[in-house]
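Dig into what follows:

_____
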Amino acid sequence: MPVIITHPETHATSNLQRGDLVFKNCEGSLEVGKVIQAGQFLSSLFGQAQIKDSKWEHAAVAINAEGSLIEAVSGGITVNDMTRGADYIVFRCSNPAVQNVAANAAQMFLENKLEAEDEGSQIFGYSLKKAIKAWANPGRTVPDVDSVEARIDSLFPPLAPGQVAADPRDMFCSQFAALCYAIGAEQSGLHPGAFIERQDHVLTPAQMVTLLRNNPNWQFIGIRQRG
């Protein structure tokens, strides 16, 4: 069954859609979530990042209406379902073509990871170290076509059997989600910075939520509450 998203003010409802950006809050029920929330709070407290609400601790890309999400977690890029023990906030891109390509990009990352594993190699792992760097020193550089193309080139060099990918291919959750949409815009012939206003490696989940709320190319769909 489709996951229903409810707008907290208008009470309008919408089915989750493929390519929606989904952000999770477990209220610190997971140790990693506590660390992420604390890092985002400190980053906002000291004025290092533009954050309205530090509780959103995880980002993912919806891959269908039933709540399957492609995300970067401790085991690397994978697919999981929404859980009942968390709140989710959902944003939808106003450009369906960009949203479709971004969802395709998320699936491409997952498929490449699985193919590499079948061949005995490892790519697209998770990097908590990079996430911490984003909290500590968030940048304000806007992605452009050249920077996105360079990122794509760095992410897909060939690997020998049994080889582990170098650090540039490890990502954290919001970095992965932002990169999918930067690719979506670039592949659609549009400026990536119009959709994702910071380079992917500096975006925390909470900062990304704040930016999306104020970006005319995104629509706040609502919240799917736990339970």
About this structure: The CA atoms of residues 57 and 158 lie 33 Å apart. The two ends are 16 Å apart (CA to CA). The chain has a mean pLDDT of 85. Strands lie at 4-6, 13-15, 21-25, 58-62, 68-73, 76-81, 87-93, 218-224.
